[in-house]
Design a protein that fits this description.
InterPro entries: Glutaredoxin, GRX_PICOT-like, Monothiol_GRX-rel, Thioredoxin-like_sf. It comes from Aristolochia fimbriata (White veined hardy Dutchman's pipe vine). Belongs to the glutaredoxin family. CGFS subfamily. The protein is α+β, with helices and mostly antiparallel strands. Helices cover about 35% and strands about 25% of the residues. The protein contains 5 helices and 8 strands; from the N terminus they run ββββαβαβαββαα. A 4-stranded antiparallel sheet has the order 1-4-3-2, with no helix packed on it. A 4-stranded mixed sheet has the order 6-5-7-8, sandwiched between helices. It starts with 16 loop residues before the first strand and ends with a helix.
Length: about 170
């Protein structure tokens, strides 16, 4: 069963859309998103919807790792021996890299929890700061960040992953 993050942290509509009737050459405005932080449009990319005269911008929150989110993440990674923050779920991975790590953990018969980072943009952005790792999936073993897909694959090939998981599950 996948760990539930929604109960611990309310889903915030960080990916809100704003309409802007300015030309694309004008610098993107700073706006106040629902998290009450000042945010800028995601990459300054303007997306035009067919049939609409206005433009819509996607926003990304600038201060994603709040103290509450950090506390929640600490509890999640310490309450399970193996936690995988991934795109999708272990039963339905929505990314090839996430699927690769799931298959490795399954091949080792390791019990693990997953959290779908696609369900909560604040979680997704906050995890990048929490781990100092910009990509997903992110594997945590015994409360410590282990790495992403490439590191997990390499450690699996060398046998290091199996050793670390055995130690973690015995402790």
């Amino acid at each position: 069963m996948a760990a539930s993050f929604a109960a611990a942290q309310p889903v915030s509509p960080i990916n809100t859309r704003i309409s802007q009737s300015r030309k694309a050459s004008v610098a993107p405005p700073v706006v106040r998103c629902s998290s009450q932080f000042m945010c800028r449009p995601l990459g300054g990319i303007v997306r035009r919807r067919p049939g609409l005269k206005s433009r819509s911008l996607s926003l990304r929150c600038c201060a994603a790792l709040t103290p509450q989110l950090k506390t929640t993440l600490d509890k999640v990674v310490k309450s399970h021996k193996v936690v995988l923050f991934m795109k999708g779920t272990k039963d339905f991975p929505q990314c090839g890299f996430s699927n690769t790590v799931v298959q490795i953990l399954r091949s080792l018969n390791v019990p693990f929890e997953t959290l779908n980072i696609l369900e909560n943009e604040m979680l997704r952005q906050g995890l990048k700061e929490y781990s100092s790792w910009p990509t997903f999936p992110q594997l945590y073993i015994d409360g410590e960040f282990f790495g992403g897909c490439d590191i997990t694959v390499e450690a699996y090939k060398t046998g290091e992953l199996q050793e670390l998981l055995e130690k973690a599950l015995l402790s």
